[in-house]
């Protein structure tokens, strides 16, 4: 599995105004909330990078459950949007990091949205 931190860096190099991506990836929930409530990041909420990753993917890779819950209120489609390899945020949440408690909390947050297709297969099946 590719580490999304490289992808986030690439995203920021090609779109330095993507503050939402940066805040979600780094766990800055207050900034994510402020940006979402401002109404000025609607395009960023819906945008994906060349690999198909969005702000929710980045938060999932870092197991930022609270940020995912917040972003889901503003981008319901992004909660289960697969990237180009078929990996969805729940895939990133399950396999990223070494803190099982954070992994479980993030997976639970994603499942509680009611928007996850648990039968989706990625490139590994």
Number of domains: 1
Helix content: 55-70%
CATH class, anyone?
A: Mainly Alpha
As an assembly, this protein is: single chain
Q: Find the CATH superfamily.
A: Ankyrin repeat-containing domain
Tell me the total number of β-strands. Answer: 0
Low-confidence stretches: 1-14
Shape: globular
Major sheet size, sense and barrel closure: none
**Mean of residue pLDDT?**
84
**Structural class, from helix and strand content?**
mainly alpha
Query: N- to C-terminal separation?
Result: 14 Å
Provide a descriptive summary of the structure in words.
The chain is mainly alpha-helical. The protein has one domain: Ankyrin repeat-containing domain (Serine Threonine Protein Phosphatase 5, Tetratricopeptide repeat), CATH 1.25.40. It is built from eight helices and no strands. It has helices at residues 4-14, 19-25, 29-38, 42-46, 55-61, 65-74, 89-95, 100-112. α2 (19-25) packs antiparallel against α3 and α3 packs parallel to α6. The radius of gyration is 13 Å and the shape is globular.
